[in-house]
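Re: the 78-residue chain
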Amino acid sequence: MRIRYDSEVDAIYVYIQGAPGEKVDHTQELEDGFAVDFRADGSVFGIEILDASQRLGFPRGCPEVSLEQIAFREVPTR
């Protein structure tokens, strides 16, 4: 997984199974400013969040951020 924030357009893109430069098959807008991109096989390529600073509560204009190779740990269910 890779997460990128672009301060110029105040957008976050979360690459789930895709990578920059790869082709998206189609996009489904879930609500204004929130869209999911899909690959041809129907898997999720990535998620785009516009007006990210407002939606996620951080100051607009933060430097560009790129997080890559994020490791998640399994959380036990009750």
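The longest strand covers residues 44-50.
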